[in-house]
Amino acid sequence: MARNEWINSYLEAILDVGTSNQKRFESNSKIVQKLGDMNRKDPQEKVFSPIKYFVEEVVNSFDESDLYKTWIKVIATRNTRERSNRLENICWRIWHLARKKKQIVWDDGIRLSKRRDEREQGRNDAEEDLSELSEGEKEKSDVVTTLDPPPRDHMMPRIRSEMQIWSEDDKSSRNLYIVLISMHGLVRGENMELGRDSDTGGQVKYVVELARALANTEGVHRVDLLTRQISSPEVDSSYGEPVEMLSCPPEGSGSCGSYIIRIPCGSRDKYIPKESLWPHIHEFVDGALNHIVDIARSLGEQVNGGKPIWPYVIHGHYADAGEVAAHLAGTLNVPMVLTGHSLGRNKFEQLLKQGRNTREDINRTYKIMRRIEAEELSLDAAEMVVTSTRQEIEAQWGLYDGFDINLERKLRVRRRRGVSCFGRYMPRMVVIPPGMDFSYVLTQDSQDADADLKSLIGPDRNQIKKPVPPIWSEIMRFFTNPHKPTILALSRPDPKKNVTTLLKAFGECQPLRELANLTLILGNRDDIEEMSNSSSVVLMNVLKLIDQYDLYGQVAYPKHHKQSEVPDIYRLAAKTKGVFINPALVEPFGLTLIEAAAYGLPIVATKNGGPVDIVKALNNGLLVDPHDQQAISDALLKLVANKHLWAECRKNGLKNIHRFSWPEHCRNYLSHVEHCRNRHPTSSLDIMKVPEEPISDSLGDVDDISLRFSMDGDFKLNGELDASTRQRKLVNAISQMNSMKGSSPSVLYSPGRRQMLFVITVDSYDDNGDIKANLEDIIKNVMKTAGLTSGKGKIGFVLATGSSVQEVVEMTKKYLINLEDFDAIVCNSGSEIYYPWRDMEVDADYETHVKYKWPGESISSVILRLACTEPETEDDITEYTSACSTRCYAISVKQGVQTRRVDDLRQRLRMRGLRCNIVYTHAATRLNVIPLCASRLQAVRYLSIRWGIDMTKSVLFLGEKGDTDYEDLLGGLHKTIILKGAVGSDSEKLLRSDENFKREDVVPRDSPNISYVEENGGPPEILSTLETYGIK
User: Fold this and answer.
1) DSSP code of residue 78
2) Which residues form the Glycosyl transferase family domain (predicted)?
3) pLDDT single digits (tens) 489-537
4) Would the N or C end of the chain have less CB density within 10 A of its end CB?
5) C-beta atoms surrounding 116 within 10 Å
6) How far apart are the C-alpha atoms of 594 and 572, rounded to whole Å?
7) Which of 213, 195, 216, 209 is nearest to 566 (CA)?
8) How far apart are CA 12 and CA 685, in angstroms?
């Protein structure tokens, strides 16, 4: 009955709130509506709702049977009074909310079970393919197994390799250029506004300090930290500065130092939270690409004899920057590193388990499916993933399709033995704890000096000679007896930080209350009601608990503190012989624990997550169950009361803290990166040097084919041949190309003096998947439009299509289109580039560029099996031999046959360790499986770098719909002109399921870079649209 009394009290509280707000809730139906709409409340609304609080307490704290009993009791005892009727109605409504929560949890359990089965099937398929070894491979295996015993099942084995630790010897001449990316939040080098919002937290501090530390490492020439430029009046003007120097290199060192580079994307005059940044990813990629190319060229001229110095590594932080880094690394063909910081799939599972919101509500609020796909894409592209703890590898990254710890072990062993992995790949997971800048730690912090504290709280406080930190006075004004040891907790006011449990543990332990004070540093606030809903709830609970346990004079909770004052807060706790505690439900790492140890504070920390590794390394504290109030109070009391134990923990922390220094972190980091680069087949990406002055002013506007070639290039003109002979020679050249395996020497392909690109990417097919005749009109209209502009002769043309090169040749022959009018032909959805003015020679460099992680022939049997949704349709999905090439496996799909969507296929391939890009084309009658780094947009970026043409000077012509890569072509800094009515049948229905993210999460609404030309619009209409972009 006690449980029912609690329910009754909560229901009475709800009624009290309703009565006091009679004007808002004039009837019982409006109260019920409020309860029903609770889960659909705008997350940005910063109003504390007592009704929501009490309803959540009932739903989350009591069983469905208890709620049912309470409802029956209310019915049995009701009378005609309005309050009793309202109580019955509310009780019935909350009972059904509890049943709804139970159903959500049940549905989630079924979904997770199904996903586990799919992952297990993927692992079994991969292991089956990897189980059979050749005789030579077996011999290698027999030799190595005696030296490499299998790990015990209950332990994750150490990552063993022949990696050499980075040494500063002989590294000074390496001139490394490193790019870090942290896209969201407010990033600056000084006076960081940590805790201002959920986007500006520990990640900001981490990346800034990492950039500084890497720049101070021998052998590193320059470090750029890329973030978003924000010129909003809501934030300080420093966030709108394009460049900020983080560290100035020592004189004579020869390095450039580290910089924050702010890349504009999205609305410049608006601060955009990370959940709303997804549509602007490609804009950031193009802006970052422009910067990196400029710096690579400049560094090359300074220290590398004019040859560009490309980034040594591109490192993305969090999901959004991870996706940016994946695109940049694929374009530049350099290794990519990922740090997740916090992971979407883990957050998604936790939110579903709470049962408060449906899958759709969570996705709508947090854009969680878009975030998870960005993390999966980052895993696909990453050479290495940096984690803080082993727990993060097993419990968090293990939830992803793109990482399976068992399969990763098997692949790692096979690589070490020299055995084929059949095109399968898993990123390397490495544990490198975050470093710390110990420059703020003074020598006195490692000693027992506390004279300044005594002068503040002693009888001679009026005779202070040495000024004390203002934050000390701000904290100690709360205490009746400031002499007591201080228990310090420092975090955001987030429910996951579990501050209320700490407060309850402190309030219910009388010996601890008598012995110590409690200081809670919970971010900065002006008015609790103006804070986010979750933060206001936490702070309101803190104030209620202080009142409930009568902790006035024993708990400090200052409203404001500066980031520069945090070291003083740690010093105050240490000088009072206090303890630092992190009671979070789950802590991915726990940087504050390391900071506290550096100032000589023993620690008490949650046993869930990274603190396990930290306490093991430092040996300076105790681990507790964050749900166990008694365990928390016992651990605190043990450390505070036992002076010998306190001194031992302090001594151990100060002695071992060097393990978490930034120099140590950078040495480990660069060692792992160097090891990964040894496995990454980087290729040289040359930039064409365009002559500054034309050969002759009289040739400035002459549209001559000779202007397509570089002045240094070796070319041959075939203008003397008629059209039919020319077509035969092209087909022969294509046949010769198919026999080439990339052994041809590298040639710098360049169209000479082109200053702008017109890229035709219209996917015009009929219902049967055949190219429609209107493509001829589209091509000719675009070329005629170019002739009407003042840039005639300086505009290059590129055709980008999902068709094979043979089909393109046949199409141009059929419609009498001169193939030589194009500077480049991008075929098979971006997996190949051909140059008509070089006898349709394939770009061998691009083939090498995109081949990384390409499984080659290993993909054929797997994709045919996975593409079918039903076994009886296998004969209707066959290899399309004439469209296949070394970088594209094409599949023909019989019209009307059901196949898996792109998102489903990609998921199943990831589970098997296969990394590919998948594109449905030709009105969904063909499936192109191409390398991960290949796409039509990536091909255009590749050409823009090679030819020195900025992406802002590229114009893409599309239809209103197209292949399943259509969305990718809409975003970015290039201009997009959509030709209405140009496309009949498309393939987009096979892109993703309705449960996944939406197009508005990929393409920005009302983008200024997207314009439309009405149906049947000709050159004048296209020219008019171009003029809106300033192209005349």
Assistant:
1) -
2) 481-654
3) 999 898 889 999 999 999 999 999 999 999 999 988 888 888 877 888 9
4) N
5) 10
6) 16
7) 195
8) 71
